[in-house]
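pinned: reference chain
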Amino acid sequence: MSRFALVAEPDPSLSAAQVAVVDALGLIPLVAHDGERAIWLLRRFGTPALLVTSLSLPVVDGFEVLDWLRTKGTTRATKVIVTSPFSELRAFASALRSHLGIGVVLPRDASIDVLRAAAQDLLAGDEHDDPVAVESLPTPPSVSVRSLREAPTDPRLGWFVRSIADELRCTSTAAVVAVDEGRVLVSAVGFESAKWPHLVGLGRHVLGAAQTLVVADAFAHPFFQGDVAVAAGSVRGFAGAPVLDGSGRARGMLCVIEPKSRLRIGTEGLARLAERARQIGTAIPYLGVGANRIVRASRRHIRDSMPDSAPASSQR
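pinned: its structure tokens
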């Protein structure tokens, strides 16, 4: 049996923890931070005893890595653990376990002890129960996109969108950020801003998990190839990072888009995208339901206290 394991994970801290588990199991760890590097290592070193891979990898997706392993490998001896913070992707991967040779599907935040136990069971040849079977998938948001109104343009958001476009040299960038319970700010470069509702299908995974999602090539992705934005020709490669409010809840996203080609930004680019998204959350405050009511009440108080001859201020 092969004595090495391949860890494919874009987050350096998480991959380091996974490497420690592999090392403790007596396997030689090889590390890839994107799917292209993972396939190169598979070509170079052959079939590993264990593969631990994220489903969302830069440059080449995790599903493509699994497809390559199963079509190019000489055996099905590799034990496979896949991880993802996105519950629907985990459920989808679980449905394809037999086809792709997946042994275990785990949440991205699964503890090291859980990962170690799963790897030990697989390497020992024990069947592992499907952890996704009892996992409850999130219910779709009750607020319709059609009920949201676009707020007046904010130059701060435009600056962040232009900055990330220049830094990552992508064809298109866009940001959709809630400012209160019924309004969103929208800004885009190289993407028709009026089409921002097309991004909701991809964006709901970013918002639901409050994690960065990368889809290197949606045309080849078994889950996302039927997405509205993909079918409309607006998106082929996509990466989106959540914009968070003060309590850590996602209230929007900053994304980069390639409409016609594979998205080739690596881990450094994803880290930069996430950093810009965090800066947006700090620079553009969120007026929640309570805060927005306070603002409206303050405006009424000021208007009511004005002399009759004074002009009324804008209600916007």
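why pinned: DSSP finds eleven helices and eleven strands in the chain. Residues 132-137, 139-146, 290-303, 305-316 have pLDDT under 50 and may be disordered.
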